[in-house]
Amino acid sequence: MLNFELYNPTRLFFGKGQIQEITNQIKPDANILLVYGGGSIFKNGVYDQVIKALEGKTVTEFGGVEPNPRFETLSKALQVIHNENIDFILGVGGGSVIDGVKFLSAAAYYSGNPIDIVQKKMNVDWKAMPYGAVLTLPATGSEMNSGAVVTIEETKEKLSFQGEPLYPQFSVCDPTVISSLPQRQIANGIADSFVHVLEQYLTYPQDTPLQDRFAEGILSTLIEVAPAVLADASNYEAASTYMWCCTMALNGLISKGVMQDWVTHAIGHELTALYGIDHARTLAIIGPNLYRVMLDTKKDKLVQLGHRVFNINEGTTNERALLTIEKMEEFFHSLGIQTKLSQYTEDYLKAAEFIKNRFEERGWLAMGEKKNITPTHIKEIVTMSY
C-alpha cells in the first residue's frame, strides 16, 4: 500500500428534505450566484425548495450550463460574478453544473487567463470562491470531490483540473429528486460511477485488500440496485442506494494507497468532445476494450473482479479475465447502453488516429497505472471499439 493523505472537508446532507439545510450553511449577508442547467429544476420542484431556503439572501441567477459544461458559457457566468460582486456560488444540478461551479470557484480570484485552468490542467492552489452544491443527477461524485472537467468548444477539448480549495463547502443529496429523471440519465449515472470504481480498482494487485473490498462492494451494489432504480426511480430505498454509490465511487476513499488508471476517461473525453456522445457511454465504449488490449497488465485484477463480483470461477486465467470483460459489457447492455462507437456516429473511422495524434501532441506518451499505455495502444483501443 502506498503512503497517502485522506482529507475531505465537504459537509454532506443526505436524505429527504435536506435542501432546507442550505439556509444554515450560507452566511446571511452572502451575495450568491445561483447556477443551474437547462431548467429541469423548475419541473421537479427543486428550484422552489432552493429559493425558499435562500429566502432573505441576495441571489443572482445564471442558467444554461450544458451537459459537459463549456468554457465559453462559464466565462459569461464569471463576468456576472465580477459585475455583481458575488462572494458565494450555489450550484444546483448534476455533475456538469457542479464541475462548472468548480471552474467559477477557481477562476473568480485567478489573476491570469481563466482558460489556462482548463488547458493547462492546473492544480488549483490559490484562494477559491466558496460554493455549495445541490445534487439533482447522481453520477460523477463531483458533490464530494475536488476535481472537475470542462469542455472548450472552440478547440474541441474536454480536460480536467483539480485542487484542494475546490471541495464543496457543503452538498445536499436528496434521493427523491431523481424520481423525474429520464431513464437514460439514470442509466448513465450507474455506468459512470461503475467505471469510476474500475479506474481506481482495475489495475494490478497492490496489497490493498480493504480498498479492493470497498470497490467491489460499490460495484456489486450498483449491479444489484440497477434494475430496481431503472424500473421505478421513485423507489426511495433504491434511489438512496444508487445516489450514495455514485458519491462513494469518487469521493477519494477507494483511491487511497493505490495506483490508478484513468485512461478510459482520457479517451472518453475525446469522444465526447468530438461527437457529443454522453460521457458515461464513452466509458462503456472504451473501458472493456482497454482491458482487452492491456490484458497482460490487468488480468490478475480482472480475475479477482470476476470471482468476487460476477462469480466466475472456472477456466484459465486469460479465459476468466476475458469472460469478466464480457460480463461487464453485458451489464452495460442491461442498462440500455451500447458499447460500439459505430452505434453512435457514422463518422467513427477518424477517431483512433485523431486521438492518438492529440495525445502525442500533448506529450501524453506513457499513461495508466504502470505508465505503459502509449499512443499506439490508444489507437488500438479506439479501433477495437468501432
Descriptive key words:
386 residues
Low-pLDDT segments, ≥5 res? none
The strand line-up of the biggest sheet is 1-8-5-4-2-3
Give the CA-CA distance, first to last residue.
Answer: 37 Å
Strand percentage, roughly?
5-15%
Task: Estimate the global geometry from the Cα principal axes.
Answer: globular
**Percentage of helical residues?**
40-55%
Write down how many β-strands occur, each being a DSSP E stretch of 2 or more residues.
8
Could you tell me the radius of gyration in angstroms?
A: 20 Å
Largest sheet: 6 strands, parallel
What is the structural class? alpha/beta
Give the number of helices: 15
- Helix-strand pattern: EHEHHEHEHHEEEEHHHHHHHHH
If you average the pLDDT, what whole number results?
97
Describe the overall structure.
By secondary structure, the chain is an alpha/beta fold. Helix content is 48%, strand content 12%. The chain contains 15 helices and eight strands. The protein has helices at residues 22-25, 40-43, 46-53, 71-83, 95-107, 115-119, 183-201, 209-231, 236-249, 263-275, 279-293, 295-309, 317-334, 351-362, 375-384, and strands at 11-14, 31-36, 58-62, 88-94, 131-137, 147-152, 157-162, 170-173. Strands 1-8-5-4-2-3 form a six-stranded parallel beta sheet, with helices on both faces. Helix 8 runs antiparallel to helix 9 and helix 11 (279-293) runs antiparallel to helix 13 (317-334). It starts with 10 loop residues before the first strand and ends with a helix. 50% of the residues are buried.
Topology:
Layout: E1 11-14, H1 22-25, E2 31-36, H2 40-43, H3 46-53, E3 58-62, H4 71-83, E4 88-94, H5 95-107, H6 115-119, E5 131-137, E6 147-152, E7 157-162, E8 170-173, H7 183-201, H8 209-231, H9 236-249, H10 263-275, H11 279-293, H12 295-309, H13 317-334, H14 351-362, H15 375-384
Helix pairs in contact: 4-5, 7-8, 7-9, 7-11, 8-9, 10-11, 11-12, 11-13, 11-15, 12-13, 14-15
